[in-house]
Design brief:
Two copies of one chain form a homodimer. Chain A has 209 residues and is α/β, with parallel strands linked by helices. Chain A is built from nine helices and seven strands; from the N terminus they run αβαβαβαββααβααβα. A seven-stranded parallel β-sheet of chain A has the order 3-2-4-1-5-6-7, with helices on both faces. In chain A, helix 1 packs parallel to helix 4. The longest helix of chain A has 16 residues. Chains A and B meet through helix 5 of A and helix 5 of B.
């Protein structure tokens, strides 16, 4: 773990020198990470250039979904490992043309437990909570939600059908991720995306010297 | 791991001597494990007596949801551990009056990776896949889906709203969980529950000598 923390700091320094804003996107399996990333990149087109590193136990389905819309993607296949680590990210990043990018998005393995402990050298950890998962997840997976700087409620278009208790979910998020910036959106309909994109552009600008 | 495997076999022998059918229910966070278990127990009332062991990193929300409808429940709080193990289950089972039960359901930590490697001494591993998670999960988490004897597609009432591709999901399940019995149901509406309950009653009966 200590070795991972040192390698993560090396990544952080390297990414900073490249003027990159780096996001580590984490969530349960099926919370909509890939669609969220695809729509974020599409809507930033012409403003910020984004590359993606995708982690999965098996298959390159997610990488393929991003690649087919023209996004530069590197796939990491972890086998049975339930998280990415800083070394995997350093190797994958070396395969991207970082000088042609403004933002690097790392899509972690779908898991609300293991990735919490692994710093990848990101600027912002972004945790997704879908309306179909239920409002109690922040309370049940506190290390992950506590460690995030950004919490995003996804699939807002399914909230009514799923009987999502929004007030309770936001209260739970504020309790566990009390320092996190919270957004609510639907990647599918685009509802709520602009506030997130404005925030991202602001974070990127802050880091340019 | 070898120690866990030995303890799991000890559990298996103990549960067999008690004439118990034991299920290990696994899934992503938010696939609907607790509601599924609650409705299964409610619909078995008068036929089979069910006790539950619930594992979570934090909170006893799930245990409380089961206890409030009169189900005998023991809670295991794992802290930062992403799975239950055979030793935890043995200790928790000792807190239940097993002689008054026919079925023991173990609700594992919500995680599609870590619990795959830990035999708990169950008769059947039951993996849940909700329609809102997407049809690709079996391909992306093969060890878990491969290890299950039963695969249940949950939240069938949300399939249309979520744009769930049923044919693709079943094809993926059959590819990875090719030996598994597959059920499709909604715990909320009750649709599809009877086939699952009949199967369960049959599995229980098989084990009575």
């Amino acid at each position: 773990m200590e070795k991972n923390d040192r390698l993560a700091e090396r990544n952080r320094g390297f990414f900073k020198a490249k003027n990159l804003l780096v996001l580590n996107v984490v969530s349960s399996p099926g919370s909509g990470k890939t669609t969220f990333i695809r729509e974020t990149v599409a809507k930033l087109a012409g403003k910020l250039r984004v590359g993606v590193i995708v982690g999965d136990l098996a298959t390159d389905n997610d990488a393929a979904r991003l690649r087919e819309v023209g996004i530069p993607v590197v796939q990491i296949t972890t086998g049975t490992v339930c998280h990415l680590d800083a070394n995997m990210v350093a190797k994958a990043a070396a395969e991207l043309d970082l000088d042609s990018l403004d933002v690097l998005v790392i899509e972690n393995v779908g898991n609300l437990v293991c990735p919490a402990d692994y710093d990848l050298g990101e600027d912002l950890r972004v945790v997704l909570l879908s309306t179909t998962e239920g409002e109690d997840k922040p309370l049940k997976y506190p290390p992950m939600f506590h460690s995030a700087q950004v919490a995003i409620v996804t699939k807002s278009d399914l909230a009514a059908a799923a009987g999502f208790n929004r007030a309770q979910a936001l209260a739970n998020l504020k309790r566990v991720s009390h320092h996190a910036q919270i957004f609510e959106l639907s990647s599918r309909t685009g509802e709520g995306m602009s506030a997130w994109l404005d925030f991202l552009a602001g974070e990127w600008k802050k880091r340019q010297s």
